[in-house]
Amino acid sequence: TDLYAVIGHPIAHSKSPRIHQLFAEQTGQLMTYEAVLAPLDDFKGTLQSLIRRGYLGFNVTVPFKEEAFDLCDVLSARAQRAGAVNTLSIQSAKIIGDNTDGVGLVTDLLQHQKTRLAGQRVLLLGAGGAARGVLAPLLEQLPSYLYIANRTAGKARQLAKDFLDLGPVQGGGLETLNQQTSFDLIINATAAGLEGAMPDLPDGLLASGGGCYDMMYGDQPTAFLRWAEQQGAAWQRDGLGMLVEQAAEAFLIWRGQRPDTRSVMAALR
Ligand code: ATR
After folding, report:
1. What is the pLDDT of residues 1-59, one digit of tens each?
2. Domain containing residue 263
3. Which residue owns the Cα nearest ligand 1 atom 25?
4. d(C-alpha 156, C-alpha 128), whole Å
């Protein structure tokens, strides 16, 4: 049996073992996938001991994605752009790093939510690792404009600068949203939802027919998705679909086969 794991802190509530187990059953792959808690100060040691025990691949989650990036011997182009990795493969004792978060988000938006990104005005809330990880795949879809708004304005401006070669992206503080016209899609990539909070946003940000996507998910609607409803969003969606799609991309990297995500999503809901 081939061994895989997701490493994070915390990790107990991770849905990834269940998702990969369903993928493995569906595709008839002989593999195990478990959740591993790494001490906050010893991601590297945890990873190395699993590699010594013959594990073939890993997902990496909060708060280790940047640290994992630094430990890779080889990085995909999209991982380099993201500055973080969520998927590791061990090949001839080398650590190969990739980042499937952004493609997971885009696939969920296009295939399951059936929304368009091309020609759309997109607002990305947050300028941390989660936002950075999805910017390149979003810009690849050719939105007409992408604005990054963040509590700390300088981080949004810097992030926009870092990705300006890929498309029409600008950034600023949340207070600058008053001066922006409305958006067809608003994506929450802040960590505010972890505290049940959300960024302070002006009314009227959402264009008529526009939708809202929260990269977070939970058993209850998130604060951001409740806000979306109040703002009359045409649709709102949480990040469970993104989670399943990023997992499917990791599975493809490891096993050469892309599982059907629709049935897995249905099983999780
Ligand atoms: P992640 O890897 O999840 O992106 P991060 O790099 O710590 O984590 O970034 C967290 C993001 O959520 C940041 O954009 C942060 O805003 P700041 O850059 O101003 O810190 C944002 N964030 C966290 N809590 C927030 C809150 N209560 N309101 C608004 N934004 C918040």
Report:
1. 999 999 999 999 999 999 999 999 999 999 999 999 999 999 999 999 999 999 999 99
2. 2-99+242-268
3. 192
4. 9
Starting at the earlier edge strand, list the strands of the sheet with 121-125: 169-173, 145-150, 121-125, 183-188, 206-214, 235-237
| Residues composing the chain | 269
126 in ligand 1 pocket by Cβ < 6 Å? yes
Residues 108, 45 share a domain: no
Cβ–ligand 1 distance for 63 under 6 Å, the answer no
Told to judge if 65 belongs to the known catalytic residues of this protein, a careful annotator would answer: yes
Quote ipTM for the complex: 0.97
Question: Does the beta carbon of 83 lie inside 6 Å of ligand 1?
Answer: no
Residues 166 and 53 both lie in one domain: no
Q: Of all protein residues, whose CA lies closest to atom 12 belonging to ligand 1? A: 190
In a shared domain, residues 173 and 204: yes
Q: What is the pTM of this model?
A: 0.96
Q: Is the peptide bond before 10 cis (omega within 30 degrees of 0)?
A: yes
- Together in a domain, 34 and 95: yes
Judgement on whether residues 117 and 234 belong to the same structural domain of the protein = yes
pLDDT of amino acid 197: 85
